[in-house]
Design a protein that fits this description.
The protein is α/β, with parallel strands linked by helices and 231 residues long. The protein contains six helices and nine strands.
Length: 231
């Protein structure tokens, strides 16, 4: 898939503010229609500005169900874990109950964590919004070029990732197929280092980031450093 619909903002803070507003609107609509809002969080440092913006809005309540797109196999409490970063930045102080915040149990190792998380996901037919980032190599979640992305029909929901090209080498990731079982997929991308991968995506190159798409919408939320050519 070539580069999807996009929105471009002047800087990461402007992007985060607009995205936080849009996410809260999606939550309100999902709760009104279906009684719950199933949200998949992105990892890494890029979405932290968004999570701070959500914290300022006191976003989230008992209707929010929080999942993770991937996790690094590190000890519980390690500051490099995606769940630790999102908890510290937003979730721990939110009104979302702990039982509705579902980190990937990656401290058990990729193989066991994959089985455990697949079990937790078994009753969820579709996510409402999936948030994802993109690496400079075109990877998303922990789906890397040269690895199995789990995009084929019948792929498992959760993948064990070994020998990842960046540390830690052992990870757990939702598959491209499972991430695509969502109403909307929003990519959050900032920084000049992402320009080359965005151009390759725009040109239709086969990249992990291009393998994930929402049923109703796939959107790239960008800052001007990542996409200097405007809307």
């Amino acid at each position: 898939m070539s580069l999807p619909e996009r929105r471009v903002f002047g800087d990461p803070e402007e992007l985060a503010a607009a995205l936080a507003d849009a996410l809260c609107a999606e939550a309100a609509a999902a709760i009104a229609a279906r009684g719950a809002f199933h949200l998949v969080l992105a990892g890494g440092s890029t979405p932290l500005a968004l999570y701070r913006a959500l914290a300022r809005r006191d976003a989230g309540d008992e209707h929010w169900q929080v999942w993770y797109g991937d996790e690094r196999c590190l000890p519980v409490g390690d500051p490099e874990r995606n769940s630790v970063m999102s908890e510290a930045t937003w979730l721990a102080a939110s009104r979302i109950p702990p039982e509705s915040r579902r980190p990937i149990p990656a401290e058990h190792g990729a193989a066991e964590a994959t089985v455990r998380y697949a079990g937790r996901l078994a009753g969820v037919a579709e996510f409402d919004v999936v948030l994802l980032g993109m690496g400079e190599d075109g990877h998303t979640a922990s789906l890397f070029p040269g690895h199995d992305w789990g995009g084929a029909p019948g792929s498992p929901d959760v993948l064990s990732v070994a020998a990842a090209p960046k540390p830690p080498r052992e990870r757990v990731s939702l598959s491209a197929a499972r991430l695509s079982r969502s109403r909307k997929v929003w990519f959050v991308i900032s920084g000049a280092g992402k320009r080359d991968a965005l151009q390759r995506w725009k040109n239709g190159e086969v990249l992990p980031v291009a393998a994930v798409h929402g049923r109703l919408q796939t959107m790239a939320w960008l800052d001007a450093a990542a996409w200097p050519d405007g809307p």
